[in-house]
Each structure stands twice: as C-alpha cells, then as structure tokens.
Structure of Aminopeptidase:
Amino acid sequence: MKDPRIQKLAANLVGYSVDVQPGENVLVEMIGSERDLINAIIEEVGKKGGNVFVQLTDKTVQRVMLKNATEEMMKTWAEIDLNRMKQMDCYIGIRAGENVNDLSDVPEEKMKMYNSLYSHPVHSEQRVKHTKWVVLRYPNASMAQLANTSTEAFEDFYFDVCNLDYAKMDKAQDSLAALMNRTDKVRITGPGTDLSFSIKDIGAVKCSGQKNIPDGEVYSAPVRDSVNGTISYNAATLYNGVTFENIKFTFKDGKIVEATSNDTERLNEILNSDDGARHIGEFAIGFNPHILHPMKDILFDEKIAGSLHFTPGQAYEETDNGNRSSIHWDLVLIQRPDYGGGEIYFDDVLIRKDGIFVIPELECLNPDQLK
C-alpha cells in the first residue's frame, strides 16, 4: 500500500517546487536506494505532461570512482553530464545514502578536483542558474541516527517538515525580504561572536519550498570586503564526508584571516581551495518551526528555527556580491537560548533575540505563527 505522504510530497515537488509544464524535461537524481518517491515523482511529472529522466547514483561506487579519477576522466564526466543538464528544464535531486561518511577517505586533492572540474560547471553554473531545481533528503535509518531518533519517529518528523504549508510561509517571508532589501549594516552577536558587515544593495531572496525541501530561510550576501569581526559556529557540519566542529572565523575587510576548528589543518586546506573560499558568498536567516537541532545534514540544519548561516565561497547569482569559488559551504550558528543565545541587528535596531523575532513586522516568522 502506498504511503499517501510520499505521493503528497511528490505532488508538491513537481507541482509547486519546480512547477513542471507540458513538454518540459525533468531530471530526477537519486543518491541512494530508495525507489518509492522516484516512482511517485515519475507519475506526477506524467500528469503534468512533462518528460522525466532518472539517474541512480550509489555513493559507494562514486567513492571508488573518485579515488581512481584522473583529470582527463573528470573533465569527460563533466562534459557528458553538462550536456545532459543543458537539455533539462527542471531538476529534482534526492539524497538518501546509507552512510554520510562514504566519501570521508577520498583524498582531498581528488575532492578538490571533483568540486572544481565537475560539480562547479555542472551544478553551480548550469543546474543552479539555468533550471528550475529542488533538492531534498529522504528519510532512512542513517538519517534517524544523525537526528538521535528512531526511524519511525524520524519519518514522522520528516513528513511534518517536508509537507509544511510552504505557500503560507512564502507570504510570511515578504516582510523580512523587504527589510533586508533596505538594510545597510548588519551586526551579529553572541557567545564568541561579534560580527559586522553590510548588505546594502545586494538584495534578498525568499526560500519557501521552491529550491530546497525542507525550506525556511531568506538569504542575501555581505558586500564582499565589508565583513569584520569574529563568528563562532555551534552546529557540527559535514564537508566531503568529514565532520567539523567548533569552527571559528576571524575576518578583516571581508577575508577570513584566521580559521580554527577540531581539524584546523583540514579546514584551512579547504579555505585555500581558491581566493573566493576565504570570502563570504551568502548570509541567511533560518526559521523552519519544525527543525530545532542540527543533524549534520545542511538541507535541514540551515533551516533551523532561530539560526543563521554565513557561507564561505560562491555567491548566488540572485544576490551576487562578486565572490567566485569552487566551494559553497553553509555553516550554521543557532541563537536560541539552549544554544547560548544571540542577537541580530539591522542598522542598529535589534530584530531578533535568542532566535525570536522581536519587531512586529517579523513576528509572523516565529515558530508559533508558522506551524
């Protein structure tokens, strides 16, 4: 018997997130072994008159490919997949691997080659900029372990989050996007954090289920050379299968001049990937009411209620501050009291304290209003 929650999610992905139109080509990529959601998506694309194409990726196979990859092979792989991506109007990416650490022992130089020669041109430059796209995780035992819950409890949480009324959230985000559009100075404070920068004339973009499921953020970017001060992130994060904790950055005129973590050497290797990796490409405020704690899955963690993320690397075209990089690494700071609290100021006005919006026009984004 089909799970009606899966069919509802598929209908939302196809009809709302990427809004498939008759005749459009849709690439569905599944990383993992789950099949029910793919089949439901195929059915929903068919109802809309679209053409669906499927790619199945196994991380354990990808790991061996990457460990044995040559530069020539990587360029050819990118050329093949880039040509396919150019023929797509929509992209739905589903991540359901059994082990989030599958790529942790791939040599760093191989991962850098993959990010710069494959991921950057195929995804950052083509898929992100030229298709209607949405990416999501799919619940399994591995994700439940990361969230410290039973598999059944995690599935219930997952569908609560992913089948949220995102159209309602979209309207609630209008006031924050408008405020960010007219803001110049931003200051972020909290334990180990005192950071200031400008977002003047960069713009702001609402995220309410069109690009990510789950969703719940409004993003901008700092003026590239305006960032000064220190930020101490308090959510553990995965990068290329490696866990980083207690990341702390110090900025001078936009550049990360000091970076420490539980693996400071590897952290700095990543930040040395290119010049843009030591500058920030995104600043975003998260507020999904159902997501409260990090689980080392950025699609969930960057939407945590009462959080923000401040991202080294590539800027998005919609809020372009000119930063270019082969990386885009969303790092999360949670400011609710149970994580130490903290404040966000726009032009010297306190707009959020301890994860709760405190000015009337933004109260619609607090958890009790969005559930």
Q: What stands out?
A: DSSP finds twelve helices and 20 strands in the chain. The domain at 4-163 is CATH 3.40.1830.10 (Thermophilic metalloprotease-like). The mean pLDDT is 93.
